[in-house]
Amino acid sequence: MGIIVQKYGGSSVADAEKIKHVANRIVRTKEQGHDVVVVVSAMGKTTDELIALAKSISPNPPEREMDMLLATGEQVSIALVAMAIHELGYEAISFTGPQVGIITDSSFSKARIRHVNTDRIMESLRQGKIVVVAGFQGVTMDGHITTLGRGGSDTTAVALAAALGASVCDIFTDVDGVYTADPRIVRDARKIDVISYEEMLELASLGAKVLHSRSVELARKFNVPLRVRSTFSDDEGTKVMGETKMMEDIVVSGVAADKNQAKISLIGVPDRPGVAAKVFQTLSANNINVDMIIQNASIEGITDMSFTVAETELHKAIEVVKGLKEELNFKGVVWDRNVAKVSAVGIGMRSHAGVAARMFKALADCGINIQMISTSEIKISCVIEKQFADQAVRAIHDAFELGKKEE
Q: How does residue 246 score in pLDDT terms, banded at 50, 70 and 90?
């Protein structure tokens, strides 16, 4: 009946009982006549524990060695899942990312998949086996183990689904779908039944932790049918698909907050051609992703330039821009960790006016100051003080009436 790819996150395989539950779910899918490829994350908090262990050895461990360490977490869980499937009377075989042929670039800690060799998986499926693959990891062409970044198991699953021509890719997690906001922050957040690839990509990249942003990017590129479902229920979850006319009627689909943000400002920058290019080319060359950028109006040939990066990359970014101070002749560098980004997303923004004004008023009514603004066709993002992030999400959610409707 075709190939189904299932991905189970760390909370779904956190202990022996949960692994047995997952194995039962996998076997039920096999009994329905499907070939099943399973992608598994490390158990529970294993990755966090390995990071803490590394930090106890070195405050700034080499990224290559971190990838070597972190890749071991998934190796434990795939073996245990395969064992649990065997106990149910079905054949299963586990593979690491390198074993199965997931080839990546050499950007340690956030590698990108370049190629997937499906020969080994297909041969195992032909033999009637359930294939269990370690998520989050791959290998470079010259044999170095890499990881894809936090949440990278989603990307592994979608990449395999695309390469195998799977009929669907189910992302199983501890929530039963994608919500209009984080239910832990907004009590009346509502589950979304259907959402477009484009909206999901924006929400994922803006702080919604349900799906890894690169997994959505891949799903959209290769038109992979994607579902977000709960490991612990049979609910159909949220379907992520191509855009439909009906979706345009909904002005805002969801609100997200990203607290892993930091702002860097270059003070007293000479306002001449090539300066901005040099700054951001150098950051890019050091594999640092810049998000929002603003530049103040020039006064007597001098300006200030601010941009945001992930807080985890702040130290590295500061060192890079400090190295440019003498060459570019700017006065100084200041930074702020106490910021967050809140965003409203919806493809209906393309055809509805006044969305930005409504969002800004919601923040103003709460006394929340906006430090930076960024917009696209289907997104409005604001940088604010981190302490107000949850309050801002609730205010924006209410302003667009996204909550559950009372019966």
A: low
Token pair listed for 349: 């923004």
Torsional sign, CA 293, 298, 301, 304: negative
For residue 160, is pLDDT > 90? Answer: yes
Q: Are 8 and 39 in contact (CB under 8 A)?
A: yes
Angle 369-375-379 from CA coordinates, rounded to 5°: 100
**Domain termination site, one of 243, 272, 299:** 243
Q: Coil, helix or strand for 120?
A: helix
**Structural contact between residues 11 and 174, judged by C-beta atoms closer than 8 angstroms:** yes
Element (H, E) at 243: none
Q: Is 79 exposed, middle or buried (0-12, 13-18, 19+ CB in 10 A)?
A: middle
In b/e form, how buried is each residue of 311-342, taking b as 16+ CB within 10 angstroms? bebbeebbebbeebeeebebeebebbeebbbb
Please name which of 172, 271, 162 lies closest in space to residue 221, comparing C-alpha atoms: 162
CATH number for position 362:
3.30.2130.10
In terms of domains, do 29 and 176 share one? Answer: yes
Contact between residue 355 and residue 349 where contact means Cβ atoms under 8 Å apart = yes
CA distances from 297 to 93, 95, 327 (A): 61, 55, 22
Range list of β-strands (E), 271-377? 290-295, 302-310, 332-345, 372-376
Please tell me whether residues 292 and 383 are part of one structural domain. no
CA distance 309 to 289: 6
* pLDDT tier, 348 (very low <50, low <70, confident <90, very high otherwise): confident
Among 305, 320, 339, residue at a domain's last position: 339
- Express each pLDDT in 318-340 by its tens digit: 999 999 999 999 999 999 999 99
How many other CB atoms are there within 10 angstroms of residue 348's CB atom? Answer: 18
* Burial track 174-185 (b if 16+ CB lie within 10 A, e otherwise): ebbbbbbbbeeb
Helix or strand holding residue 184 (H, E): none
- Tell me the pTM: 0.81
Do 229 and 268 fall within a single domain? no
Residues 288 and 348 in one domain: no
Q: Locate 277 and state its tokens.
A: 């290019």
Q: Please report whether residue 258 resides in a domain.
A: no
**Structural domain of 101:** 3-243
Query: Average pLDDT in the 170-185 region?
Result: 89
Is the pLDDT reported for residue 79 higher than 50? yes
Residues of the chain with pLDDT > 70, as a percent, come to: 97
